[in-house]
């Protein structure tokens, strides 16, 4: 039997007056890749941030391998949205990836040559070794995303949270990222990805979490990735444009 | 003019403003990437009432005690800014603008009261407005140097932590760096640097010692470490040079000369800086224009040759 990695129970969170998460509960099994999907403002990023303690929770419990985030955080990797940092910051790609190792290096110590090698290997995996000493401000959006992924790989975590890693990247970056995700899965790692493109869900992910302030459905993609679930999650004003096995959603209200 | 360089007191004072400049240059880089340049200005203005109140209580000019008063009042200002911003609809820049002027106004008012008190007008408290490094006595210099050295030490020992904290605080928190702890440490070193500098540079101009070296250094490097080092060097050199110039005439304030020196460095950086300096960028553009024009001509002649 596969053990569960994450247990979320009755989780809720808010931004000022607006409750963005309400009674969220689910359980993630080891070695799965889950897509978190839902409309804009459904609380997808907030869910990840609340689980990682980056946003305060109102109620509920989140546990990793049966223990709290504090004890498990060494085994958890996080890839924030690309837009969450200032890419003008004076540093190069290799240096950003090395940041993934800071927790292991220890505070107030200087990264060793070995650490730099590890960071370089992570960059290589993302096909970015040629850009190791490039200023991060001079990287394209897709390259910046790869640097973030490489930093998470350098962390060598067991469980990864990724916030829209495929947003606004070109086809080759998307392919590179998905190759890495599959590799992580085959190594028994667990990955949760906030995803915006419904069309690629069945191809990329084995589990889906439908979220719109609360969980509408969660389970294996084959079972829960249905028109019904999509329609209820995205609201009644969605109109279906079905084309073979392609999923296209149009909103009639905009 | 050079003879006063040999004066031992001038050397002492120059050394202290140099160390102050080094600390301020380093902290300035942290403030620059925390996007809090105006914050340092608000904090230095907010320090003034604390200085005067401390003087009114102890009735003598002991720099360490005045600095503690300044720090408390600056921290109170910082608290007000934070509180206004989080508890009301007032935005941060409005809160800073208000705190800055109200605290400064209170400071000037208290200063007038202190100057009327016995021994008040000889106290040299007025120097805290525009800065008068020459007014510092030996014990002032020692206080300043020790505190500045601690600040410099904290910047350099936690170098990679500062970088992570400023670049990506969410990620930093995820891998176990205490963001609250870093914020507290940042505020402590920022306030310390400001309050030890106000006697030499003055509350009005202290913020320039943090901002100008940092933004000048930005024009020369693409590495965070180099930026901090360079900013410290610019700050230290401006501190020493400005102090020396102000010591050549009696009663010249120190702050303005330090600020003008670093502003000169900034002007040079703005035009000739290796990274995006205006002149350098223009030359690069012209060179690129010429090479693409040559390419274009080559293509045209090749085409012409083929068509004949």
TrEMBL record, chain A:
Keyword Lyase annotated: no
CDD domains xref list: ABC_Metallic_Cations (cd03235)
Coiled coil regions in record: none
Similarity comment text for this entry: Belongs to the ABC transporter superfamily.
Family matches, as Pfam families: ABC_tran
ABC transporter domain mapped to chain residues: 6-238
Protein origin, superkingdom: Bacteria
Record-given protein name: Manganese transport system ATP-binding protein MntB
Gene name as annotated: mntB
Sorted UniProt keywords: ATP-binding, Nucleotide-binding, Transport
Organism of this sequence: Oceanobacillus sojae
One function term, GO molecular function aspect: ATP hydrolysis activity
InterPro entries according to UniProt: AAA+_ATPase, ABC_transporter-like_ATP-bd, ABC_transporter-like_CS, Metal_Ion_Import_ABC, P-loop_NTPase
UniProtKB/TrEMBL annotation, chain B:
One Pfam family of this chain: ABC-3
TM helices/strands, residue ranges: 12-33, 63-83, 95-114, 135-159, 184-212, 224-245, 257-283
Signal sequence, renumbered to the chain: none
Domain of life: Bacteria
Entry keywords, A to Z: Cell membrane, Membrane, Transmembrane, Transmembrane helix, Transport
Cellular location(s): Cell membrane
UniProt GO cellular component terms: ATP-binding cassette (ABC) transporter complex
InterPro entries recorded: ABC_BtuC-like (IPR037294), ABC_TroCD (IPR001626)
Predominant location: membrane
GO BP: any one term: transmembrane transport
UniProt membrane topology term: Multi-pass membrane protein
Family named by the database record: Belongs to the ABC-3 integral membrane protein family.
Protein name: Manganese ABC transporter
